[in-house]
């Protein structure tokens, strides 16, 4: 029989002896009993008389008894010896148990120290054993479940590395030692190994050199990541960048640098030490570093055989230097163009009748036009000195060109608050001389204000006369020549005007009796005896018609007069009837019909004339443009600067005139109905790109940002590619013409189930609601700020070509927030035309 130990307190040996000692005791008692029985049996045998037949049996019994006694004695001796050995072994086990318990106590005391914590995993599914503690300063929670949730108190990167290491330890037994950063910025060390078939991880708080090493390692990883990110950024940029060692040689360059020096790649450029800047540029950088560590200057460089201008920044570091070059060629070009544009705008402003004055962010006058100087009677010398706006207002006040104010200082301060406003402000000035000015203060995004002074004196006078005329017309409408009569639900007359009685020659006394519609019918039949017409009329007025729908008709009376009537159902079962004598109108209509036929014939002649004249104009214009281009060619002969400027004006004006002639010709062709669409598959992205290319120069000249939103894979549709490109070009040209300097234009293309939708949105001044209905009319043009309007044909052509494709065009605009024009073109215009038929 076996008895297994299940704890660590030494109960195995004691249990075994608790089982052996009673057995030994029972064995000794049994031996003593057998010995007593043997002695009694021997005495009995000795007392009986000897007989011959019983000697053998007695001898055998005595032998057996003696054997039992001997066995009992030997068993007792063996048991006594076993007892002595067991007691010696038990004493040794007690000593060993005490030693093991002391060792376990020391180990547990070491594990429970404040600078480490052990986690041991045994069989899968069993909770891990957690022992020991970590200092509170490191941020590790003491509670067991919270401690095992490593992601709550370690940084995400540290928690991820620890989970991966523990997974490999528990799966394959891979040992590890890693430094981990806690959420509060402290570092601990985690070491994993296997012991006794268990995965054990020890966590220790780092200090001293190990802590410094862990912090350095973490900082090294962050710096390495930052360096790699910066190098990746510099590799992706289009600006050449480089790093030099202390010896001045290139140690690293990016791909843009390699392309600029025409090397195979960045490594080839660095190994061959190919220089991006010339010797003078490098010497300038060296001289600049002698004075300060950061060198910034605009330097020339040869890139792909072309001379370009770069803004170079080179910085000295502990290991050498690093630099980057930003291409500023286009910036210099744009700055030159901007200067010329400003001069052109100044000349244009002088031609405007509206007074304009531009003040900078420092509230000093930057520019003005002649109308401003003349309107306020200001001296040109004073204005050219760029005076402060307060000084300008004082001069205007002295010449009585400002509204009379009781507190001029408060009024002026309120006026100048426009400099802190983001939106345009409008003021009305009533001057002492009787003039009225509409003053607009338009803030600049970069600071400053543009003041626009519009003299609306005549406009207000016209508006006053218009209001008076409206009142006169209202009085006239109260005395209409149209006869009006209102009948009640009972068919009796309730209301009438003098024109009704005059048209039907009815007596006012008769009408004052409120006659029935039947009585009025009988009175009117003497002028128009048509029973069927009067039956329909009476039915609609008396309400016998269940539908009570409005009706209208015409009566040709026997006296030759033609009367148009209309019945309108009113609430409460009433009916209003109107009569108008259209005899003269009918006669005029017949005359107009004949005249219309004549006008149609004249219109055909007009279209033929316009087409002929357009062709005749285009030929000399083509010659003018061609010869002007030849004059501009330096190979033909040198021109002076003024001559070159004049030839540029000729080319620009001739091109604009040719575009107008072509537009007129296109419209004439559309009106004549002889234009034919060349339908085919039109690639949306390619067509949009071609249209953008046509306005790219104007976009750069006005520093406009064109944003395109075209879904990838938008595909194609059936249309006339040339006309679609012309539609997009005119929409973009219109947006460019009405966009403020430096603003954005958005071009979108979307595909629906049956149409392609193009939309162009600008951030211009917008269109007033009263002009929205006429924007697609021909030769309708409106000025955008200081820029004069064009010929007014662009949107008219867009509408004509869109309608030729079976599409629609719409416009959405709000003053001060820009305009958006949308074009809907069917994907299959041929199919739509067939369906319409």
From TrEMBL:
<keyword id="KW-0418">Kinase</keyword>
<dbReference type="InterPro" id="IPR050736">
    <property type="entry name" value="Sensor_HK_Regulatory"/>
</dbReference>
<feature type="coiled-coil region">
    <location>
        <begin position="76"/>
        <end position="117"/>
    </location>
</feature>
<keyword id="KW-0597">Phosphoprotein</keyword>
<dbReference type="InterPro" id="IPR036890">
    <property type="entry name" value="HATPase_C_sf"/>
</dbReference>
<protein>
    <recommendedName>
        <fullName>histidine kinase</fullName>
        <ecNumber>2.7.13.3</ecNumber>
    </recommendedName>
</protein>
<dbReference type="InterPro" id="IPR005467">
    <property type="entry name" value="His_kinase_dom"/>
</dbReference>
<keyword id="KW-0902">Two-component regulatory system</keyword>
<dbReference type="InterPro" id="IPR004358">
    <property type="entry name" value="Sig_transdc_His_kin-like_C"/>
</dbReference>
<dbReference type="InterPro" id="IPR003594">
    <property type="entry name" value="HATPase_dom"/>
</dbReference>
<keyword id="KW-0808">Transferase</keyword>
<dbReference type="Pfam" id="PF00512">
    <property type="entry name" value="HisKA"/>
</dbReference>
<dbReference type="GO" id="GO:0016301">
    <property type="term" value="F:kinase activity"/>
</dbReference>
<dbReference type="InterPro" id="IPR035965">
    <property type="entry name" value="PAS-like_dom_sf"/>
</dbReference>
<dbReference type="InterPro" id="IPR003661">
    <property type="entry name" value="HisK_dim/P_dom"/>
</dbReference>
<dbReference type="Pfam" id="PF02518">
    <property type="entry name" value="HATPase_c"/>
</dbReference>
<keyword id="KW-0175">Coiled coil</keyword>
<dbReference type="InterPro" id="IPR000014">
    <property type="entry name" value="PAS"/>
</dbReference>
<dbReference type="InterPro" id="IPR036097">
    <property type="entry name" value="HisK_dim/P_sf"/>
</dbReference>
<dbReference type="Pfam" id="PF12860">
    <property type="entry name" value="PAS_7"/>
</dbReference>
<feature type="domain" description="Histidine kinase">
    <location>
        <begin position="612"/>
        <end position="829"/>
    </location>
</feature>
């Amino acid at each position: 029989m076996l008895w297994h130990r299940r704890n660590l307190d030494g109960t195995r040996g004691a249990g075994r002896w608790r089982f052996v000692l009673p057995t030994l005791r029972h064995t000794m008692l049994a031996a003593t009993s057998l010995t007593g029985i043997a002695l009694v049996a021997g005495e009995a045998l000795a007392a009986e008389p000897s007989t011959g037949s019983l000697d053998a049996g007695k001898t055998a019994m005595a032998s057996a008894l003696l054997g039992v006694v001997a066995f009992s004695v030997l068993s007792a001796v063996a048991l006594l010896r076993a007892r002595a050995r067991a007691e010696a072994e038990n004493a040794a086990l007690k000593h060993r148990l005490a030693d093991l318990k002391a060792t376990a106590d020391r180990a547990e005391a070491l594990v429970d120290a404040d600078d480490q914590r052990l986690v041991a995993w045994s069989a899968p599914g069993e909770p891990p054993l957690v022992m020991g503690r970590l200092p509170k300063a490191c941020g590790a929670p003491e509670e067991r479940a919270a401690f095992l949730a490593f992601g709550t108190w370690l940084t995400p990167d540290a928690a991820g590395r620890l989970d991966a290491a523990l997974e490999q330890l528990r799966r394959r037994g891979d040992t590890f030692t890693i430094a981990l950063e806690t959420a509060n910025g402290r570092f601990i060390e985690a070491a994993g190994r296997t012991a006794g078939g268990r995965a054990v991880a020890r966590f220790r708080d780092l200090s001293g050199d190990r802590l410094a090493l862990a912090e350095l390692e973490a900082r090294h990883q962050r710096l390495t990541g930052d360096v790699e990110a910066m190098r990746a950024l510099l590799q992706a940029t289009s600006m050449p960048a480089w790093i030099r060692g202390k010896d001045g040689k290139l140690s690293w360059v990016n791909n843009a640098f390699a392309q600029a020096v025409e090397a195979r790649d960045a490594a080839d450029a660095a190994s061959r030490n190919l220089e991006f800047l010339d010797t003078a540029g490098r010497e300038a950088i060296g001289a600049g570093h002698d004075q300060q560590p950061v060198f910034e200057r605009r330097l020339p460089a040869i890139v792909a055989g072309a001379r370009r201008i770069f803004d170079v920044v080179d910085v000295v570091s502990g290991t050498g230097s690093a630099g980057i070059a930003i291409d500023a060629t286009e910036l210099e070009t744009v700055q030159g163009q901007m200067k010329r544009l400003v001069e052109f705008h100044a000349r244009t402003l002088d031609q405007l009748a509206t007074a304009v004055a531009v003040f900078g962010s420092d509230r000093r006058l930057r520019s003005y036009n002649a109308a401003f100087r003349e309107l306020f009677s200001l001296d040109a010398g004073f204005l050219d000195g760029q005076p402060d706006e307060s000084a300008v207002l004082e001069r205007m006040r002295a010449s009585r060109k400002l509204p009379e104010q009781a507190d001029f200082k408060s009024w002026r301060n309120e006026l100048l608050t426009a400099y802190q406003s983001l939106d345009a402000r409008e003021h009305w000035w009533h001057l002492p001389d009787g003039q009225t000015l509409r003053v607009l203060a338009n803030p600049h995004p970069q600071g400053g204000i543009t003041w626009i002074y519009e003299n609306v004196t005549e406009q207000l006078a016209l508006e006053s006369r218009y209001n008076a005329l409206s009142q006169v017309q209202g009085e006239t409408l109260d005395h209409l020549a149209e006869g009006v009569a209102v009948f009640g639900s009972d068919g009796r007359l309730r209301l009438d005007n003098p024109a009704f009685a005059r048209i039907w020659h009815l007596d006012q006394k008769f009408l004052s009796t409120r006659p029935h519609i039947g009585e009025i019918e009988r009175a009117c039949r003497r002028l128009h005896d048509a029973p069927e017409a009067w039956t329909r009329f009476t039915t609609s007025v008396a309400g016998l018609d269940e539908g009570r729908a409005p009706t209208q008709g015409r009566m040709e009376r026997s006296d030759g007069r033609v009367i148009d009537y209309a019945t309108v159902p009113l609430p409460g079962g009433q009916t209003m009837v109107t009569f108008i004598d259209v005899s003269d109108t009918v006669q005029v209509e017949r005359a107009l019909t004949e005249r219309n036929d004549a006008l149609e014939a004249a219109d055909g002649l007009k279209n033929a004339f316009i087409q002929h004249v357009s062709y005749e104009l285009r030929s000399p214009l083509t010659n003018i443009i061609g010869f002007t281009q030849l004059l501009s060619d330096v190979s033909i002969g040198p021109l002076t600067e003024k001559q070159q400027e004049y030839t540029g004006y000729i080319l620009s004006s001739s091109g604009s005139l040719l575009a107008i002639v072509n537009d007129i010709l296109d419209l004439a062709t559309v009106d004549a109905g002889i234009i034919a669409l060349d339908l085919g598959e039109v690639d949306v992205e390619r067509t949009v790109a071609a249209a953008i290319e046509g306005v790219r120069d104007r976009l750069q000249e006005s520093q406009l940002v064109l944003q395109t939103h075209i879904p990838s894979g938008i595909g194609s549709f059936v249309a006339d590619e040339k006309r679609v490109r012309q539609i997009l070009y005119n929409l973009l040209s219109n947006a460019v013409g009405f966009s403020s300097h430096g603003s954005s234009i958005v071009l979108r293309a979307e595909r629906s189930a049956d149409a392609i939708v193009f939309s162009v949105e600008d951030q211009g001044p917008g269109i007033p609601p009263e002009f929205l209905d006429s924007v697609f009319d021909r030769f309708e043009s409106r000025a955008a700020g200081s820029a004069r309007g064009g010929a007014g044909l662009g949107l008219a052509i867009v509408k004509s070509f869109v309608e030729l494709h079976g599409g629609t065009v719409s416009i959405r605009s709000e003053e001060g927030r820009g305009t958006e024009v949308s074009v809907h073109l069917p994907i299959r215009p041929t199919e739509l035309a067939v369906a319409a038929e």
